[in-house]
Amino acid sequence: MAILKILQYPAEQLHTIAETVPEVTGLTRTLIRDMAETMYNAPGIGLAATQVDVHQRIIVIDVSKTNDNLLVLINPEIIASSGESDYEEGCLSVPGIYGKVGRAESITVKALDANGKPFALDASGVLAVCVQHEMDHLVGKVFVEYWSPLKQSRVQAKLKKRQRSAM
Ligand code: GNR
Ligand code: NI
Questions:
Q1: Ligand 1 — pocket residues by CB below 6 A?
Q2: For the chain, does the N or the C end have fewer beta carbons within 10 angstroms?
């Protein structure tokens, strides 16, 4: 097991489009274990492979309070969505920045599990938000990029200021 380094916005690798996983192998499962450990250690409720600089369509999520309900989504696809939600989001790649993003309230997602077996999942609430947030990472999108240019420049300024005071 290993804790992986999480890329920090605005690292340009966060804008990489991940590749479909052609076959779920032992190497895939090792990466998934390391991603889960990294997510629990952070701590966070989700992590996309993009965030650890691996550009494959792999997501881990655990929205349980007890950290005992790991959800693995390989090659996820949203096959239905409905409603609207406006949930306050955060991101392990943009620490200390929080804000709302408009998303679907309920989704049905199909994916492969860690054994390569297809499944479908109906999600709503925070789980649906998290799946959509993670799937955005896989196509190179970070949640702050939904915001207006003005709000994004404030985010950039805040991150730069923090970087300076950390030195
Ligand atoms: O830990 C996380 N919390 C969170 C809260 C609200 C909406 C989305 C998230 S995902 C985030 C972890 C992360 O950055 N995943 O990419
Ligand atoms: Ni994120």
A1: 44-48, 51, 89-93, 129-130, 133-134, 137
A2: C
Catalytic residues: 134
To test the ligand 1 pocket, which listed residue (52, 89, 138) has its Cβ within 8 A of the most ligand atoms?
89
At 136, list the tokens. 């955005």
Tokens encoding 148: 């207006």
For the whole prediction, is pTM greater than 0.90? yes
How far apart (Å, rounded) are the C-alpha atoms in residues 55 and 77?
16
Please provide the CATH number assigned to the domain covering 12-166. 3.90.45.10
| Every domain of the chain and the residues it spans | 12-166
